[in-house]
Amino acid sequence: MQSVPPFRLARTPSSESGSSTGAYKGLSADACCAPSEAQLRSANRRARLVDLDSHLHCSIIGTCLSTNELRKLVPKFTDLDKQHASDLEIHHAAVELAIDGGPGAKALQKALDTRYSGAVRRFEVAKSPEALLALWKEALKSGDIPPAYWALMTHPQAIMSVRQVAFGDLHMLSHLVGAANRADIRRLVALEEENAALKDKIERQQNKLHEQSRERDATIRELTEQLAELSAKAQRAPDVSEGSLEAEVQALREALVARDEKLAIHTSRREAAEQRAISEQNYARTLSARLDDTIATLNIVQAECSALERAVLAQGDDAGSRGADLDNLAGKRVVYVGGRPGSNAALRQLVESAGGDFVVHDGGIEDRKGMFAAALPRADIVVFPVDCIDHDSMNLLKRVCDRHQVDYHPVRTASVASFMELMARLGRTAARKDSRSDSRNDFQTASQPPASRFCLKHG
């Protein structure tokens, strides 16, 4: 199987930027001269699903439509069974419908347009391939991939190089996310399966206890009926000899003793089963708590992977600009206490590339703990990983920061991902504060009259 994309990747997004004007054949070269309405309708028409390259259908359907949506839609146009068909068969059938371009393709087109109408309207402001790529990069940073992917692929300005860039970004993003979350997902699935098995076991034990209780009640009723029947016989036959009555009473007593022993056995078994059920319930609650902790850890790891991915995408940008998560470090002094030499070197490079000053203190292994009092008052922010610092150094660090009113932030691990996730949270907090002060300026800008469309050449 080929490992290359289904088409040749463009070298630069701007190589075909001029080709976006090719749709306006026959139009005037002057930018102020507006084309006719017929030409505008032809040039600004969004691409349909059937108009796209057949190699793009797999990525569009797999990214923008969920399996449940496809399972409801595809069987209407194929002979697949909605209940028994596998997810892969449903996906392949949907791709074939998109390639054929029949009623199935129209239904897929309608479902995508209906679901992502907001994204399509948001991308309509892009009037050039460069502006379209800028909107795509913003969607990558925010993680809102499916709506942006569909709006970009069908946009009138989506030339071949733009679609190639979006396809490549989506392809590499699937590798990064899959590699980061595969181990956590396996553990989560194993815990869920174990929890479901324990629930089934408890339910079976409860059913068995109810059955044993019904058997015991039936045995008691049977003995009561036999005793009543024998009492009635004794009253109807007064001429029965005394010896036979004693023998019958003795037999009844023996039968009653046997029934009592059987009842005691059932009672002991029921109590043992109840104890086992209680222990299984406690174990299930312990597993549920572990599952909650695992899910919380998985959410933190996903946030760290997202922050690290944004930093990697920002480092790979053509302009070489740093990530927006590190913009708030420009001109600030960051003191990092603890950590590992390898990750500390990478963090120093990131902070210094953002225009900040990065100072490392090993927490007292080689550097003296007394240097906290000299290093921290000049710091703007103090960061320490909780897995690579001892408790005494951490407590001393907190007291010094509180004394000098310096912000300190613990991170989960000494990795670059944990540091980038902290910077992303701090950046979002600063952005929310700045948005309040910028709202008044935005209102004044919006109230200004639009620029004049008067043409110096044509009037």
Topology:
Layout (H helix, E strand, L loop, with lengths): L36 H7 L10 H11 L2 H7 L13 H14 L2 H13 L1 H7 L5 H14 L2 H9 L6 H77 L5 H74 L17 E5 L3 H13 L3 E5 L10 H4 L5 E5 L5 H14 L2 E5 L4 H31 L13
Parallel strand pairs: 1-2, 1-3, 3-4
Explain this structure.
The chain is mainly α and 459 residues long. It folds into 3 domains: 33-180, no CATH class; 182-313; 324-430, Aspartate Aminotransferase, domain 2, CATH 3.40.640. 64% of the residues lie in helices and 4% in strands. The protein has 14 helices and 4 strands. It has a 4-stranded parallel beta sheet with strand order 2-1-3-4, with helices on both faces. Helix 8 crosses helix 9 (160-236), helix 9 runs antiparallel to helix 10 (242-315) and helix 10 (242-315) crosses helix 14 (416-446). The radius of gyration is 37 Å and the shape is flat. It starts with 36 loop residues before the first helix and ends in a 13-residue tail after the last helix. This is Peptidase. Residues 12-22 have a biased composition (Polar residues). Belongs to the UPF0751 family. Residues 1-23, 430-459 are annotated as: Disordered. Keywords: Coiled coil.
Q: Which structural class is indicated by helix and strand composition?
A: mainly alpha
For the biggest β-sheet, the strand order reads 2-1-3-4
Rg to the nearest angstrom?
37 Å
**Which geometry do the CA atoms define?**
flat
Largest sheet: 4 strands, parallel
Number of domains: 3
Could you state the order of secondary-structure elements as H and E? HHHHHHHHHHEHEHEHEH
Mean pLDDT: 78
Helix content: 55-70%
Number of helices: 14
Q: Using DSSP, what is the number of strands?
A: 4
What percent of residues are in strands?
under 5%
Ends: how far apart?
61 Å
Segments where pLDDT lies below 50 for 5+ residues? 1-5, 7-42, 318-322, 443-459
